[in-house]
Amino acid sequence: RMRICDRNYRSRYSEPKLPPIWSIAEVLTFGQLSLWIQYLRHGLDRAEIAAAYGIDEQVLVSVIRHLSYVRNVCAHHSRLWNREMTVAMKLPLNPRWLHQEFNRSAGNRLYNTLVVLAYLLDTISPASEWRRSALELMDKFPSVDVVAMGFPADWRKSRYWKH
Predict the structure, then answer these.
(1) What pTM value is reported for the model?
(2) What is the DSSP letter of 19?
(3) CA distance linking residue 25 with residue 90, whole number of Å
(4) What is the pLDDT of residues 107-121, one digit of tens each?
């Protein structure tokens, strides 16, 4: 796919030498995008991307790598709900209110992943219905052991999940 993208670009443009990232991102897998962000030559480029989400660039790299891992778990139909994630992520310290939403005693369980995912989706698409859909899914299966997913006992009282 990258070769086709490159060939199409070169047949139409001579400058700049390489296609713009928005064009390349169309053909990258999520894992490839994760690696691209991780291996950007200049940390300032990562910092600029991370700033759009209000997080540190090292946290961004860690979160994207973690989400790539979670995506692969889902894509290969592996057990996710009570899994101890082997690819951990650094929890953002900022914004402060977000940092307070994490369950630090949960280890590398799903809850913290869902908090980060909800935050990123709220940032990218404030009108997203993802969080509401996640809550509806939780309500649909009340017998699921949320503690095994790393949810704190009082998670439903959180302002973040009531939103």
Answers:
(1) 0.85
(2) -
(3) 24
(4) 899 999 999 999 999
